[in-house]
Amino acid sequence: MPTYSRILLKLSGEAFIGNDSNIDHETTDWMARQIGEVHGEGTEVAIVVGGGNIWRGQAHEAIGMERATADYMGMLATIINALALQDSLERIGIPCRVQTAIEMHQIAEPYIRRRAIRHLEKGRVVVFAAGTGNPYFTTDTTAALRALEIGAQAILKATKVDGVYSSDPFKDSAATRFTSLDYLQVLQLGLEVMDNTALTLCMDNGLPIIVFNMREPGNIRRVVHGEPIGTFVGRAGQRADARVESNA
């Protein structure tokens, strides 16, 4: 029996990258099947996608591009990813709607909160694209905002590592993994879970964040069923107190 009946899955743009493509169809199809597992068991799934596989605004800002322009271009990149994921989901029989914060009626619905909730209630996956529709806000902040708006019970943040570490585990063999953290601990320790705006939104509203390794088959389902994988970020008492495990 799933622990969560409605979730918000946060996918970075990097999740779409394959060996030789910024949007790899095999990778995208694989993600769709993982999402399909939990959808098939009755969990309502909303998704926020990033666009870093196509466009990274920070690199262009560094050479003088206006921040707002770079951010708007990044929002367009998220729409491309959302459409690719929608196609993969629909090809395996899962109804899906893309809603964008920047209106483009020919290819997607505009974001309307009540319509998004109705889609979820009808068993459709909803993919939110174009961030918040405003520059200066990340897709992490979008994930927190949309999760709260639709009444999601948790944000599942998919990454390439199995949780939150004290330092980069790919560079530091002594890095330790946290199994559980309080929001304030994340802020005090300067850990890269979500940006501070997103984290504060979650903290103010008691919305838990679960950081896990998306690349491990079946992990979305394990999280939805309440298995203690990855790192749980929430209020003290929502899950076991913070502790660390060796990366050995």
Helices and strands, with pairings:
Elements: E1 6-11, H1 25-40, E2 44-49, H2 57-61, H3 67-91, E3 96-100, E4 109-110, H4 113-121, E5 125-129, H5 139-150, E6 154-159, E7 164-165, E8 176-178, E9 180-182, H6 183-189, H7 196-205, E10 209-213, H8 219-224, E11 231-234, E12 244-246
Parallel strand pairs: 1-2, 1-6, 2-5, 3-4, 3-5, 6-10, 9-11
Antiparallel strand pairs: 7-8, 8-12, 10-11
Helix pairs in contact: 1-3, 5-7
Walk me through what this model shows.
This protein has helices at 25-40, 57-61, 67-91, 113-121, 139-150, 183-189, 196-205, 219-224; strands at residues 6-11, 44-49, 96-100, 109-110, 125-129, 154-159, 164-165, 176-178, 180-182, 209-213, 231-234, 244-246. With 248 residues, the chain is of the alpha/beta class. It has a single domain (6-246), classed as Carbamate kinase (3-Layer(aba) Sandwich), CATH 3.40.1160. The chain has a 9-stranded mixed β-sheet, sandwiched between helices. Strand 1, helix 1 (25-40) and strand 2 form a beta-alpha-beta unit. Helix 1 packs across helix 3 (67-91) and helix 5 (139-150) packs parallel to helix 7.
Q: What Rg is obtained from the alpha carbons, in whole angstroms?
A: 17 Å
- End-to-end distance: 33 Å
User: Got a strand count?
Assistant: 12
| Residue share in helix | 25-40%
Overall CATH class: Alpha Beta
Main sheet specs: 9 strands, mixed
Kindly report the name of the CATH homologous superfamily: Acetylglutamate kinase-like
Low-confidence stretches: 240-248
Query: Which strand order do you get reading across the main beta sheet?
Result: 4-3-5-2-1-6-10-11-9
Q: What's the tally of helices?
A: 8
The percentage of residues in β strands lies in 15-25%
